[in-house]
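Problem 3 from the worked examples.
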Amino acid sequence: MLIHHLRVLPLLVRMHVRSQLEYRGAFWLDRLAQILSYGSVLATIGILLSRFDTLGGWRWPELALLFSFQLLAYSLGAAMSFTQLRDLEELVRLGTYDTLLVKPFSPWAYLIFSGLNIGYTGHILLAVPLMGWAVLSVDVAWTVPSALFFIAAIISATLLTAAIITMIGATALIWVRSNHLFSIFFGFWELTRYPLNIFPGGIQLVLITAVPLALTSSVPVGALLGKPIPILGDWAGAVALVAGPLWVLIAMAYWRYANSRYQGAGG
């Protein structure tokens, strides 16, 4: 069964990618719009720094690294989860999810790989060059351990992003409605493109625990740059690396629980 799944998954991805590229002009115009949209956010940060020099003790190259890290980790994690899990509410409401349960295939794997979203290409095209410039501009003595930490932190942040989105989407299997939770998610996510230490203690605690999105941005980047990290202190780097795999396990358990509570379209 596992071998069968592994053979089918590339086919699902290829079919969905081809459908997204059917109108290539519109696809690339949409990517350009994404780049301009996030570019305007980056420009706003730049304007703030031109007035105040630093933001929470972070200089421009450090904030550029933070912004690009957050955007890259989100785009990689969301490509594997957001659109697919956002649409789960509609599948549950219409009863379409029932058809996935009778397929000889994991419902989660089918949802994720049949809906792999290459629309995040615009995010990546902005984040990667900016990250390359920032990496060369920040005051970090790059070594093999620091480079490995940086790569591992991006992977962990990606996993954490996908795990949280998966749990939000899976809530539709219990409540039918879950998309309102994405509004809360993005409200907190927008905060994480700024240093954690500029927020009040209560928000800092929420961004590390209940909605741990700071672990996808300012915590790992701050640990790399040697910045003081509120609450976590010297444990910041280790917590950032462990967070992704840990929350994946939590998301897997929650997905199974949500499926066990699912009662079908009839309620």
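Problem 4, a separate protein:
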Amino acid sequence: MIFANPLYLYLLLLLIPMIGWYIYKLRKSQASLQVSSSEAFNVPGVTSWKVYLRHIPFVLRMAAVAILIVVLARPQSTNSWQNSSTEGIDIILAMDISGSMLAQDLKPNRLEAAKDVAASFINGRPNDNIGLVVFSGESFTQCPLTTDHTVLLNLFKDIQSGMIQDGTAIGLGLANAVSRIKDSQAKSKVIILLTDGSNNTGEIAPVTAAEIAKTFGIRVYTIGVGTKGMAPYPFQTAFGIQYQNIPVEIDEPTLKQISATTGGQYFRATDNASLKEIYSEIDKMEKTKISVQEYSKKQEEYKNWALLVFALLLVEVLLRNTLLRNIP
């Protein structure tokens, strides 16, 4: 057994002055009488058995205090195995970071809104292997599949428009995501592809990448981001950043074909709320129960000690109010 907070054990030294104070009070409370002989008080049976039991409440209280200090020190056992059932799949997030993702029909803009909602999605799935692929005119892997979501979220914060050549290479981004998840041993492999445009560059056509995903049993959910009609877009001018409304052009037929080919589903996010609902819907659809054997190095063991403290205090109270009620 080990202790998470061993410094609390030094509080056991407080028992010494507590015991000393009890002995001092006990001696002060006893009356004295000088007699020529004490033989009359030594007759067998004169002293009540309750007199010998009067110290038991104090002993119980000291034991309770000592054990309470042990509880504060958090006793833990080590080397324990635990079988559990959990839910987990492998997921690659393929996110468009092209210049058009800076449009402000979503707040503060499409890219930041997508990052915030995706981060919440990641936090809600602690048992999944999740990776991140970004694309615009090119594509690269920001984070491979991992269960270390702290690292993933830190890398997620670093992505921004302009990191790579501008454009919208949907096919290239999807193909890159497929290459990152195709060798996974998980029963369920999922890609969530988010974009706000149509494929206009790259060597691989989106439908071809979808066929490759289907070959490896990968399901692709596609999300088109952008309001319907016009959206405010920032332009850098000699007078600073100016906003101009530009038409929203999302190649929905291609995105629908990608999802249909792979057994996924297409969604359209026109604002922050709908984007959040889309990720929530995907989260509900993609659940797979798996059996996991976890090895835990440390197991909290304070509960039994806490119950013992309660039991000792209960016995003390019962003794004081029943058998030892009239004993000082």
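Solution to problem 4. The two ends are 40 Å apart (CA to CA). The longest strand covers residues 75-87.
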